[in-house]
Design a protein that fits this description.
heterotrimer, A alpha/beta (276), B mainly alpha (111), C mainly alpha (241), A: 276 residues, alpha/beta, Rossmann fold, 2 domains, 10 helices, C: 241 residues, mainly alpha, 85% helix, 0% strand
Chain lengths: 276, 111, 241
């Protein structure tokens, strides 16, 4: 379990990127980390990895401070950054020298993922496009079978069929002992994968709830007479709204609508979910 | 798999499985794919798929053999047909009648 | 536990050499080709030898940069620092490089360069004889080695401290070292002048003969301390951006 307590951070003394972040993320879920540009999603992921010191507060992975850089912690964690540089060697070669750090690495699985994603693991990485390189690294990371996978904008640069493959691979990856954290703006790409939504804003954690909890308390869709509307927007299909779910009906969660609602009407959302 | 936004995803998976049973693709008393495999097939969070399976089990369409997997219940086909029928009569039919009246048409329903 | 750390060092070394292969290859080729080329042009084996020593010294800057680079470069920082490698293992790898592998490679490449350029030169330069002589005249051989260690540990410290621009860091360190040395010399001269006032012989103080073993110890302690400082900086670096 990853927990943070009153976590704050700024790159310079004048700047404040993260403010009072208190949350917990459990295994067995695919968490979505959402927030406006510059709110600090990537910074939070880096703090979880233990490569930066928080200004105040703490981060713990299963009770251990990731900054202690214990092997037990780091060998169970892989982050796929939004942008990264890989040396100009083949993925096979890269995997051969990196896999020893991750005891559960499965070469056969990696080759399988490469085939599904449509990447050749035997060619030098610099001869591939950025999107292909990303797919290659995703294939490697998944094959390491670590219990915590942190992904920063994983679908950026992926072509449409690959996004679908990515969803399927990730769906098959998570189980009770593993967790995945996806930080993204491309909500539509991963909507059906997420089962816990975390939304950050300037005051801290705006929302941290499972999709079931959200659908129990909120209703998404076209407005009906008597609905207590929290947020609505005009779309081609009519007025789509987020309203209080009084009837207990189960509607289709629209993460986009939810996000817009938290931006426009944070107090109402906070009020509904703070009755935990 | 592409999902529509008019129904929760777990519902759509529920219906997908119900359709497979109804069409005979998955036969009664036979084992169906695991939650994990289903999740992998459609690219959906396994917890969501679990919800569909739990609902199907609660509705008596499938049953769980601990340690082995989920099986299609005996009589599931008839059961699904009953559920679909009542759903049609309570939800879709009134809408159809209303539309027919709007268009000035009449319809008779026989059992 | 000991086995684990050793394994860790080997694994990290393999990982590092593979992912940074271009930089290391360049370094090795430089150690070979520059003195070789020089020897061919000047037709003088001794010049080739001198050039190989020069490349040996200048290569230290490149080596230190290579070893620390993945921890500093934007695109590799996160992936490098999230590897399950302890600072101990990283330091172990760096020490392996500095103390054993680099001097060994430099020696082999240098010898190769001088030998290969022999058909082109007219000088009677007997490499093996020269090495034999050097082995007897310990101080020169080990002196160079200790000097290299001082350069390596020093540049390692600078690389670990540097934030963005490495060149700027070197310039700043150069200024600091010069300022420090000036201060020390200034103080030293003050002391000497005082002594002179009391009619002490300056020569006696400057050229006081310290026992050989003490001299060697001091020379060994300097890089060792600097490596120690590097280790502390490395530990700190792992969490400081």
């Amino acid at each position: 379990m990853i927990t943070t307590k009153s976590l704050s951070f700024g790159y310079t003394s004048a700047q404040q990127v993260l403010n009072n972040i208190t949350l917990s993320m459990e295994r067995g879920h695919i968490h979505g980390l959402l927030g406006c540009n510059g709110i600090g999603k990537t910074t939070l992921l880096k703090l979880i990895c233990g490569i930066m010191r928080p200004r105040s507060g703490e981060v713990r992975i299963d009770g251990i401070d990731p900054m202690m850089r214990r092997k037990e912690t780091l060998s169970e964690l892989i982050i796929i950054p939004e942008e990264f540089d890989l040396p100009n060697i083949s993925l096979e070669r890269y995997a051969a020298v990196t896999a020893p750090f991750y005891p559960r690495f499965d070469r056969g699985a990696m080759l399988g993922y490469c085939e599904e994603l449509g990447v050749n693991p035997r060619v030098r990485l610099h001869s591939l496009s950025m999107g292909q390189r990303k797919k290659a690294y995703i294939a490697f990371a998944l094959a390491c079978n670590v219990s915590m996978l942190l992904l920063d904008e994983p679908t950026n640069g992926l072509d449409i069929p690959s996004k679908s493959v990515f969803r399927r691979l990730l769906a098959g990856y998570v189980d009770e002992s593993r967790m995945v954290v996806i930080s993204t703006h491309q909500v539509a790409d991963v909507e059906q994968l997420l089962d816990n939504i975390i939304i950050l804003n300037e005051q801290g954690v705006m929302l941290n709830a499972t999709t079931s909890e959200i659908c129990e308390r909120l209703k998404f869709g076209r407005t009906v007479e008597g609905d207590k509307v929290i947020y609505s927007e005009r779309t081609i299909q009519g007025d789509m709204a987020v309203s209080v779910n009084e009837s207990g009906e189960d509607s289709s969660l629209s993460i986009e609508l939810l996000f817009n609602a938290t931006v426009t009407n944070p107090h109402a959302i906070a009020a509904i979910f703070n009755q935990k | 798999m592409q999902f529509s936004d008019d129904k929760p995803i777990w519902r759509q998976i529920y219906e997908l499985i119900a359709m497979r049973i109804l069409s005979g693709e998955w036969r009664e008393q036979e084992r169906i794919v695991s939650v994990r495999e289903m999740a992998q097939e459609v690219g959906v969070n396994p917890n969501t798929v679990m919800r569909s399976y739990e609902r199907l089990e609660a509705d008596g369409i499938i049953f769980n053999r601990r340690g082995i997997g989920f099986y299609v219940s005996l009589g599931a086909v008839a059961h699904i047909r009953d559920i679909e029928r009542s759903k049609f009569i309570s939800e879709e039919l009134p809408k159809l009648v209303e539309r027919l009246e709007l268009l000035g048409l009449k319809i008779e329903v026989h059992e | 536990m000991k086995n684990n750390t050793l394994c860790g060092i080997v694994n990290y070394a393999r990982y590092h050499y593979t992912t940074q292969y271009k930089l290391y290859l360049t370094l090795v080729l430089q150690l070979l080709l520059i003195p070789l080329f020089f020897g061919i042009i000047t037709r003088d084996a001794e010049s080739a030898y001198a050039m190989s020593v020069a490349v040996y010294i200048f290569g230290c800057f490149g080596l230190s940069r290579n070893m620390v680079l993945p921890m500093r470069e934007r695109g590799t920082k996160i992936m490098e620092m999230t590897l399950p490698v302890t600072s101990c293992e990283r330091m172990g790898f760096m020490l392996l490089n500095c103390i054993v592998l680099y001097p060994l490679t430099a020696f082999v490449m240098g010898a190769l360069a001088v030998t290969l350029s022999t058909p082109f030169n007219h000088g009677e330069f007997d490499l093996l004889g020269q090495i034999g002589e050097m082995a007897v005249d310990n101080y020169f051989f080990y002196g160079i080695y200790i000097f290299i260690q001082i350069v390596l540990s020093g540049t390692l410290i600078i690389n670990l401290l540097a934030r963005r621009n490495l060149i700027v860091s070197y310039l700043i360190s150069f200024v600091v070292v010069v300022a420090f040395a000036t201060l020390v010399i200034r103080l030293g001269l003050e002391v000497l002048i005082r002594f002179d006032e009391y009619n002490e012989n300056i020569e006696n103080i400057v050229f006081v003969s310290i026992p050989q073993w003490l001299g060697i110890l001091i020379y060994v302690l300097i890089p060792t301390t600097m490596y120690g400082v590097s280790y502390l900086l490395l530990r700190k670096r792992q969490v400081k951006w």
